[in-house]
Amino acid sequence: DGMNVLFIIVDDLRPVLGCYGDKLVKSPNIDQLASQSMVFSNAYAQQALCAPSRVSFLTGRRPDTTRLYDFYSYWRVHAGNYSTMPQYFKENGYVTLSVGKVFHPGVSSNYSDDYPYSWSIPPFHPSAEKHENDKTCRGKDGKLHANLVCPVNVTEMPEGTLPDIQSTEEAIHLLNVMKTSRQKFFLAVGYHKPHIPLRYPQEFLKLYPLENITLAPDPWVPKKLPSVAYNPWMDIRQRDDVEALNVSFPYGALPDDFQRQIRQSYYAAVSYLDVQVGLLLSALDNVALSNNTIVVFTADHGWSLGEHGEWAKYSNFDVATRVPLMFYVPGMTTSHVSQGARVFPYLDPFSRIGGSVPKGQSKKVVELVSLFPTLAELAGLQVPPACPKMSFGVVLCTEGTSIVHYFNISEGKVEEGKEGCDDTDRCFNEEPVAFSQYPRPADTPQWNSDKPKLKDIRIMGYSMRAMDYRYTLWVQFDPINFTANFEHVHAGELYMTESDPDQDYNVYNNTSYGWFFQKFLD
């Protein structure tokens, strides 16, 4: 009788968390989870867009195999009838439950969040979600607007609540039901914040006085950034407060004070999320299931906060592709947890000082596509086989690999990315890398550059992140045959992340990096 799984997936959360070394954020509950978990500090999504990323990690296949780069197709019809991670748990005797935003809603999950394949009962969506983009933000003029920056008084909101509050309540209800039924479960809880609009209870602003908020370290468009790589952040331009600023398209910068406000509200939304996670985890203690439930915490992708003069996701940079990833496994990441022991007492971000450090930490580069085999292994299920080169007809296989062998829990030890390597060739070949990709409609920023529909995709940016570099090629792409032509390179990017961690200096055209490309040819 295996372990339960609580899978927490957050929308648009980059690792601005205390446990990831962020000095400004207040995230005591997520940090407390990290203090009992194996934490991966170099985890990357396969595409920095909600639907493609979620379908990728929930099926264990890359976007080129799901053939989803936008929001408008259902993989079972359009690519192949691939089993999903929750479906695999369901077929192995688990009750599988979905709360909030797990699959991206709409056609990409068959208008049903892939029910009944993936879930035992129809997924729960918070009723307040439908008000997310309404005019609920009070402006300086006293009127209501559909703003990007949107701290609110929850009691004044439609239904008197917010979606993530409802999702936490429903997830806690389901934990109580599962406790009574004594069946093993896979419960996925998808939180909306910090996805835009940055709409959260206004008291969280108090945690972040504006004078403590800095701009991004590199708030300018890098000189050598190829125009195809730039994402023009159309979605935030369409919010009332940003639109009023009349910023020139595509490269005009937002005013500094407004940049600070966005950053302040993103942080505030993260602390609001932290409270929800804290309530959910303390409920796991309350039903005495912390000793036999694996907890996974991650996000679908990151979000730029002004770095490279960019906002939102839609790019191949670390700020858009890197995600938090941690695994709490009772008896593995923690010594034996006795039944009924409190592992996750709720922590109030308004009265907390100091953070906690991860129990175990790996700097190895890992990918979200590896979640499916990793969770299967942790739960003691048979690990799905590796996919063959062409796997459109294969129902159950994975293009990721289980990362359980990277778990090494010894107090405070950070496992470096590169140990035991004398022979450089062997080293390079075995060094784990993460692949991400992003489609574009044209070489220069267009109104639809952030989210091109499949038929409009002309270029695909394939990006490879290793320990000490990010290498991206923007190549010709044919959306009818789904083929990329690497003979036809539109642009390239190479960032040496040891010396350029923020990825501001593209050295792709520097002749001194000839050695770098040579190692691909060997």
TrEMBL record:
Keyword presence, Lyase? no
Compartments, record wording: Lysosome
Which SUPFAM superfamilies does the entry mention? Alkaline phosphatase-like (SSF53649)
Needs which cofactor? Ca(2+)
Question: Which PROSITE patterns does the entry mention?
Answer: SULFATASE_1, SULFATASE_2
GO MF, one annotated term: metal ion binding
Question: From what superkingdom does this record's organism come?
Answer: Eukaryota
Which cellular component appears as one GO term in the record? lysosomal lumen
Sulfatase N-terminal domain location, by residue? 4-380
Q: Which UniProt keywords apply?
A: Calcium, Disulfide bond, Glycoprotein, Hydrolase, Lysosome, Metal-binding, Signal, Zymogen
Q: How does it assemble?
A: Monomer. The 58-kDa mature form is composed of two chains resulting from proteolitic processing, the 42-kDa chain and the 14-kDa chain that remain stably associated and form the 58-kDa intermediate form which is enzymatically active.
Name of the molecule in the record: Iduronate 2-sulfatase
